[in-house]
């Protein structure tokens, strides 16, 4: 079976872009990676707008978004409609992946202990999609309600009832303190973490590394250079490599158009220059290591030869 369907592993991050592209269950059903990503992006917008409409905390919105991404790591975007909801109402109304998205928000509210009534969630979904609310006796309202009630247990089973989510926000605050960053810098980095939810980065990297990349992007945006500590860049102290930061930053930058608040070309050029610097430093370090090894081997050989001339061997 495809790698992403291996429920025994229950690994929720660490997948490569290629694995997500080629092994998604949606690909089996003929849904292209472009269409899947477009639906994921739209779903995260729906979750965010509905959550803000109900004044839910950002962590709850983030939890719902991670639930959604994890659900479609293991389910096809067509399976839910075809298998679970074929007996409920007429098809062709609200797409099933939208129902899954808003049900993830309903579930996240319970998990984060700031839940909202099902009716409030549905009314906010209707406002986001149609700018209007339907009475609870309306057939369309009942249709969405029934589908959400079927979706909730399916989501729980698919994510294996793993409802405790670690987000990058906590690590980000620790890292901000480490680099002695300002509140303004923290706010920009925090927003980049929010932006990362629109991608599949939560399926690719540990939250700590996403936090590192978002802080790195904020630092570059503000033209701030952080001095190395103990001969290592600041992010190395959080077990994050430059290549990982570059991959994450590149995916976040792809969310922004050619005209945006951030100079994408400058940031990309800056990362490329840093990558060349690290490559050169690695070459120099390797050459120095080889020189030390050669010198040590030469010294050992000389000591052995001298010892042989005097009739004893070195210890």
Features:
single chain; 315 residues; mainly alpha; 14 helices
| SS content category | mainly alpha
Q: Give the H and E element order.
A: HHHHHHHHHHHHHH
- The helix content, as a percent range, equals 55-70%
| Uncertain ranges | 1-10, 81-89
Gyration radius, rounded: 26 Å
Distance between the termini: 58 Å
State which percent range the strand residues make up. Answer: under 5%
* Tally of alpha and pi helices: 14
Overall pLDDT score: 84
Largest sheet: none
Report the strand count: 0
Basic shape: elongated
Quick structural summary:
With 315 residues, the chain is mainly α. It is built from 14 helices and no strands.
Could you outline the blueprint of secondary structure elements for this entry?
Layout: H1 17-22, H2 25-28, H3 33-53, H4 58-74, H5 79-84, H6 96-111, H7 118-130, H8 139-158, H9 168-178, H10 183-196, H11 201-204, H12 207-221, H13 242-253, H14 264-309
How does this structure look, described?
- Helix content is about 65%, strand content about 0%.
- By secondary structure, it is mainly alpha-helical.
- α9 packs antiparallel against α10.
- The radius of gyration is 26 Å and the shape is elongated.
């Amino acid at each position: 079976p495809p790698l992403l369907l291996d429920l025994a592993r229950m690994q929720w991050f660490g997948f490569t872009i290629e694995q997500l592209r080629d092994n998604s269950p949606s690909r089996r059903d003929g849904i292209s990676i472009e269409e899947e990503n477009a639906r994921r992006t739209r779903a995260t917008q729906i979750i965010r707008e509905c959550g803000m409409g109900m004044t839910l905390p950002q962590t709850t919105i983030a939890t719902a978004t991670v639930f959604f991404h994890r659900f479609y790591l293991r389910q096809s975007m067509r399976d839910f409609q075809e298998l679970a909801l074929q007996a409920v109402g007429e098809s062709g109304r609200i797409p099933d992946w939208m129902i899954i998205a808003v049900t993830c928000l309903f579930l996240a509210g319970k998990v984060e202990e700031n839940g909202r009534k099902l009716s409030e969630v549905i009314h906010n979904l209707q406002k986001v999609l149609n700018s209007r609310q339907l009475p609870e006796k309306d057939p369309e309202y009942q249709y969405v309600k029934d589908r959400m009630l079927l979706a909730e247990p399916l989501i729980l089973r698919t994510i294996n009832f793993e409802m405790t989510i670690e987000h990058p926000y906590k690590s980000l605050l620790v890292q901000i303190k480490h680099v002695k960053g300002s509140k303004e810098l923290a706010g920009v980095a925090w927003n980049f973490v929010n932006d990362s939810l629109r991608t599949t980065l939560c399926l690719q990297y540990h939250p700590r590394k996403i936090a590192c990349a978002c802080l790195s992007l904020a630092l570059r945006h503000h033209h701030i250079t952080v001095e190395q500590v103990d001969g290592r860049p600041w992010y190395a102290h959080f077990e994050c490599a430059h290549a990982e930061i570059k991959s994450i930053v590149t995916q976040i930058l792809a969310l922004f158009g050619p005209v945006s608040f951030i100079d994408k070309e400058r940031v990309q050029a800056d990362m490329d220059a840093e990558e060349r610097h690290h490559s050169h430093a690695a070459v120099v370090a390797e050459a120095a290591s080889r020189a030390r090894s050669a010198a040590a081997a030469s010294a050992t050989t000389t000591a052995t030869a001298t010892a042989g001339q005097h009739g004893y061997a070195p210890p």
